[in-house]
Amino acid sequence: MTTTSALEISARHLAQVRAACAAIEARDGQSVTLAQLARDVGMSPWHLQRLFKRAMGVTPRDYADARRARRFRTELKNGESVAGATYAAGYGSSSRVYEDSRSQLGMTPASYAKGGKGARLAYAVVGSPLGRLLVAATAKGVCFLALGGEDAALARELRAEFPQADEIVRDEAAIAPALQVLLRHLAGQAPHPGLPLDVRATAFQRRVWQELLAIPSGETRTYSQIAERLGTPKGQRAVGRACATNPVSILIPCHRALRKDGALAGYRWGVERKRALLDLELKNRES
């Protein structure tokens, strides 16, 4: 998790980190070692690893893996076969892409190519202080969370998120442990719920979400401030999009992100719920 602002890095070092990003991107999926990157930008491997993680929120390897996974997903969406996408994205073997899919895709590559076919999800809907709460999960972790007024509407949102899943079943018993943690949190009886997640993310989304998790409970940051911390001072709109595409709000606290003027607008589940979450966190912090 990023704990130091990219703005605290010297301009020269930040330029070197950006050069390392450019070097990774220029290789277009080809593997590159930390030593090679360090030679490219003129610093030691240890120094590059430390500065890159501080500025980007992820290691050079994580950044390269995320770009390769994104290229792989794009090839699949464009109709390429799994074998063809594997080659185009720079994976050395099919075994490596299936290994990486556990963390990058949350389902097998073939399933992702078919819009999630093969995924099996369980979900439950219960009452909460914020209205009806839907929580869905795979065997790996929570993959979707929604708030609303009607169970049927929430279930439709879930199916729209995973239109080709092989199985989406309502199973209160399977989701009970996650629900218990979330409901205790929403009742002010437990800190931030550290539940396991099964979500896909680009490198940038991951960095934004890490910044959201780094904001202390009860505090807020503007989209501009988050962009500044990521070293992209003009990237507030991209930060806003990353917040809007967060599939597990509350668990990844996008309610802590505000507009530059401090307005609460821009929360998928409504401004009143955003305000309620912030009030809850502030109350828990003061108690």
Low-confidence stretches: 1-8, 93-99, 101-113
Q: Mean pLDDT, rounded to whole units?
A: 79
Q: Give Rg in angstroms.
A: 20 Å
- Secondary-structure element series: HHHHHHHEEEHEHHEHHEH
Number of helices: 13
Biggest β-sheet strands, sense, barrel = 4 strands, mixed
Residue share in helices?
A: 40-55%
Briefly characterize the structure.
By secondary structure, the chain is α/β, with parallel strands linked by helices. The protein contains 13 helices and six strands.
Describe the secondary structure blueprint for this structure.
Elements: H1 11-26, H2 34-41, H3 45-56, H4 60-77, H5 82-89, H6 94-104, H7 109-113, E1 120-128, E2 131-137, E3 142-148, H8 151-161, E4 167-170, H9 172-186, H10 203-214, E5 221-222, H11 223-229, H12 236-244, E6 257-258, H13 271-286
Core attributes:
single chain, disordered N terminus, alpha/beta, 287 residues, 6 strands, two-stranded parallel ribbon, four-stranded mixed β-sheet
